[in-house]
Design brief:
The chain has about 300 residues and is mainly alpha-helical. Helices cover about 75% and strands about 0% of the residues. The protein has one domain.
Length: about 300
């Protein structure tokens, strides 16, 4: 009789590595929680347990998910190299991950959404701003994870490649948001995209969230298309830049065409921008993320 369940045999040392990685991951999540409270000058416990601030919880959860996504590229990276080296590697890459995520969040708050006081609006329970804030962190983490998986080793060349590639992609996300603002102003008599987020347009926030995540997923396919060169600093940066632009523009085109076909007979812009139709925005969200996953899946093989 055939065996009902066939498991791949695992080395006993793997469980020790798992305990080490889990312990360090939990410690880093605690650091992230502390940073969230320190930087926003508030108490996490008070915001979540006393004020029941859902917006703050969404923002914090986005940061935690982002860190876990980044750490998923680190765990197992040093298996077989010794417990000490594995712990040091996890700590180093975890610290780099937190630092770069915070840099990405700072750039998003101060440069991308430069006319939105993110912390103040989240404190006032703005769900639309919290959703975009969480999405920007997760999108940054998706890109950072794939860049970490793209590089080889844990030396300074790898860290330089990770940092430079990450900053290039953040620039790409900034450009996509600026183009979206131009489109929004054109379609809404010079209305402000950021102003609509400040006023709580959840449909617009949801659609933009999908765009951020979709762009991050599609841009990350550069991992499968580019050859990593440890000392090729310029080629690494230009490679990520060119692929990012081509992939982001391609995804935007595919999503636009798909919306016109699937939502034929209705004005998507009117429904989302003016009627705050979350149902229509959800379709846009799914198309951005779903099509990015399809294209990424094809190019990854």
């Amino acid at each position: 009789m055939d065996t009902l369940v066939q498991l791949i045999p695992l080395d006993n040392s793997l469980w020790t590595y798992l305990v080490i990685d889990f312990g360090i991951a939990l410690a880093l999540l605690l650091v992230l929680k502390w940073l969230k409270g320190a930087l926003s000058k508030t108490s996490v416990t008070e915001e979540l347990g006393v004020k029941d601030n859902i917006a703050f919880g969404i923002s914090l959860a986005g940061g935690m998910l982002g860190l876990c996504i980044v750490l998923s590229a680190v765990v197992g990276r040093h298996i077989g190299m010794g417990y000490t080296k594995a712990a040091i590697g996890m700590l180093v890459f975890g610290a780099v991950g937190i630092s770069l995520l915070k840099v990405g969040q700072f750039i998003h708050d101060k440069l991308v959404l430069d006319r939105v006081d993110t912390d103040a609006l989240i404190e006032k329970r703005s769900l639309s701003v919290a959703l975009v804030d969480a999405a920007s962190t997760v999108a940054s983490a998706i890109v950072l994870r794939n860049i970490m998986m793209w590089v080889d080793g844990s030396d300074m060349n790898a860290i330089i490649a990770i940092t430079s590639g990450y900053l290039v992609v953040l620039t790409m996300l900034l450009m996509m948001t600026r183009l979206r603002e131009v489109r929004y102003a054109k379609d809404n008599q010079n209305g402000s995209f950021q102003g609509a987020l400040r006023k709580g347009n959840m449909a617009l926030a949801l659609e933009h969230t999908g765009s951020l995540l979709g762009t991050a997923i599609i841009v990350s396919t550069a991992q499968s298309l580019l050859v990593y060169s440890p000392d090729g600093y310029v080629s690494n940066v230009t490679g990520w830049l060119v692929v990012s632009v081509v992939m982001a523009v391609g995804l935007h085109t595919l999503v636009t065409i798909s919306k016109r076909i699937l939502l034929l007979g209705m004005s998507v812009k009117q429904e989302v921008d003016h009627q705050h139709n979350i149902g229509v925005a959800s379709v846009g969200f799914v198309l951005s993320v779903g099509l990015a996953l399809v294209v990424s899946g094809v190019l990854s093989h």
